[in-house]
Amino acid sequence: MTAAGLGGAEILLVLGSGLGAFVDELEEARDCSYEDLPSMPRSAVPGHSGRFVRGRVAGREVLCQAGRVHLYEGHSSEVVTRAVRAAALQGVPHVLLTNAAGGLQKDWPVPSLMRATEHLNMTHQEAPGAAPEGSGSVYSEELGEALVQAATEAGVELESGVYAGMVGPGYETAAEISWLAGLGANAVGMSTVLEADAAHGAGMEVVAVSCITNPAAGISTKVLNHQEVVQAGAQAARSFAALIIGLVGNLPTDSMQV
């Protein structure tokens, strides 16, 4: 697959840490390494393989971004959002953003899945092409309802809440977690918010799912590390796959490419 092959899909699936195994669910899969695409950076973070994979799920054409880059790797907001903006330019109408996140709710099990209903952009960065403030939520109510329907049909427990996006790479302190909870956050991570803003500004319908891979600092006394994040993502893989396959199957029929 070449750069020209990014278009024609009905949805872009951005796969976060530990969630890249979803590409194994694709039929007629073909892939393209970021190294083969001009100006596409490759992540050095474990759990981010660095390739696009095109294929079919639930009878629909999808494009997976297996691996993303982050601000904490030294990339700008323009680079971090490059993949979603390229997909929008190629006419992909929908995007599902996924991430591994720390949970701020003591009663949520680990791992669990959360639909992001809103986000807090705590990165001090602005996404290129983001819609003006006051233009409404970046997250599509229609896709959100399709996600909830998919969870019900698959028997997958799906929480909902607010995702807080931080720069990283260090995990937040207990004091920072308490502050974020006071602002209304239910999960915290190091991605997604800029991609969501950029995709929405480019005209894409946006939906997001966080895999709660660990309790945030102060919720648990356990020391956090990235390897446990990846392992928890792998544990949630079956529920995650069922949820995403259901979402793709529930996409609005008027999004069918011709």
Distance from first to last alpha carbon:
20 Å
How many independent structural domains?
1
If you compute it from the alpha carbons, what radius of gyration comes out, rounded to the nearest whole angstrom?
Answer: 17 Å
At the first level of CATH, the class is: Alpha Beta
Strand order of the largest sheet: 5-8-7-6-9
Structural class: alpha/beta
CATH superfamily: Nucleoside phosphorylase domain
Task: Give the beta-strand count.
Answer: 9
Percent range for helical residues? 25-40%
The CATH architecture can be given as 3-Layer(aba) Sandwich
Order of helices and strands: EEEEHHEEHEHEHEHH
Number of helices: 7
Whole-number mean pLDDT: 89
Describe the structure.
The chain is an alpha/beta fold and 258 residues long. The protein has one domain: Rossmann fold (3-Layer(aba) Sandwich). 26% of the residues lie in helices and 26% in strands. The chain contains seven helices and nine strands; from the N terminus they run E-E-E-E-H-H-E-E-H-E-H-E-H-E-H-H. It has helices at residues 77-80, 82-89, 141-154, 174-182, 193-201, 226-235, 237-249, and strands at 11-15, 27-33, 51-57, 60-66, 94-103, 112-121, 158-165, 187-189, 205-215. Strands 5-8-7-6-9 form a five-stranded mixed β-barrel. A hairpin with a 2-residue loop joins strand 3 (51-57) and strand 4. The longest helix has 14 residues, at 141-154. The model has no long low-confidence stretch (mean pLDDT 89).
